[in-house]
């Protein structure tokens, strides 16, 4: 079992400016000092990190710099999160070019998982067949992750096709991709996290832990997600896989949120 923390809590989330005019350059990016974020996470106790794709590919031409940064912070990169539209057939080739770029850098950085969030929602809403288009895109993506020895895991996410139970279940009926349950996104979208985990347990690659209160995502143990129930259930099933804590979009202090979350996990995972 490995336990990580995502660096995206340590700065504003933006998209790459080049993505405005070029689909292949669309990516998430956290505006933070990557080195300082890594050191803060490690000082609190987490040994692994997850980053957004933009925070990886900005080092694509100099992965040694990123490796040295991780070495100095004494952390390892467990996973990378990438966004996906995947319902626009004309754009799929360029999206896959981006996936290839991310996977190449991820392999060089020692990453295990590519976590995929997405499925674009059209102006008029989700059309019949959109979940199938997303599934077909994920099939293409898995060909690339397999090529680089990475594990692809789909992350149901607010603001995407895979937000509500209906579309999530439709997607996983079309695709055999492994899953990354994010317990707060699931709850916010109307899917009981434990029910989801029970249903898709055999497909879980890693688990995202976060909490949710009336203001949004929150440090572990400060919201209404039944985190103890989730941990207890998967332990009862013999789960020995990986965990990733994420407290993005939190209005409070990022370092304190990281510390609160680590303290919550003492005696449970650490």
UniProtKB/TrEMBL annotation:
Any single Pfam family the record assigns to this protein: AP_endonuc_2
InterPro entries: IolE/XylAMocC-like (IPR050312), Xyl_isomerase-like_sf (IPR036237), Xyl_isomerase-like_TIM-brl (IPR013022)
Domain of life: Bacteria
Gene3D superfamilies (UniProt xref): Divalent-metal-dependent TIM barrel enzymes
An example molecular function term from Gene Ontology annotations: isomerase activity
Protein name per UniProt: Sugar phosphate isomerase/epimerase
Keyword check for Isomerase: yes
Coiled-coil region: 49-109
UniProt keyword list: Coiled coil, Isomerase
Domain Xylose isomerase-like TIM barrel: 41-265
Keyword Coiled coil among UniProt keywords: yes
SUPFAM superfamilies: Xylose isomerase-like
């Amino acid at each position: 079992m490995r336990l990580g923390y995502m660096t995206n809590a340590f700065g504003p989330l933006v998209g790459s400016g080049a993505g405005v005019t070029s689909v292949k350059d669309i990516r998430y990016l956290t505006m933070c000092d990557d080195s300082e974020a890594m050191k803060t996470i490690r000082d609190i106790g987490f040994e692994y990190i997850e980053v957004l794709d933009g925070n990886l590919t900005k080092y694509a031409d100099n992965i040694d710099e990123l490796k040295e940064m991780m070495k100095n912070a004494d952390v390892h990169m467990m996973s990378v999160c990438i966004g996906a539209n995947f319902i626009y057939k004309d754009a799929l080739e360029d999206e896959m070019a981006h996936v290839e770029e991310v996977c190449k850098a991820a392999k060089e950085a020692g990453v295990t998982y590519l976590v995929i969030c997405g499925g674009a929602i059209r102006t008029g809403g989700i059309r019949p067949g959109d979940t199938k288009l997303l599934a077909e895109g994920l099939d293409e993506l898995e060909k690339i992750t397999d090529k680089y020895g990475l594990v692809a895991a789909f992350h149901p996410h607010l603001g995407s096709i895979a937000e509500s139970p209906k579309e999530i279940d439709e997607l996983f009926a079309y695709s055999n991709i492994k899953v990354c349950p994010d317990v707060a996104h699931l709850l916010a979208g109307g899917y009981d996290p434990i029910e989801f985990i029970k249903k898709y347990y055999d497909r879980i690659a890693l688990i995202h832990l976060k909490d949710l209160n009336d203001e949004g995502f929150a440090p572990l143990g400060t919201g209404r997600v039944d985190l103890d129930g989730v941990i207890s259930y998967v332990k009862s099933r013999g789960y020995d896989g990986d965990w990733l804590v994420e407290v993005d979009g939190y209005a409070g202090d990022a370092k304190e949120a990281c510390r609160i979350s680590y303290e919550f996990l003492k005696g449970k995972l650490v």
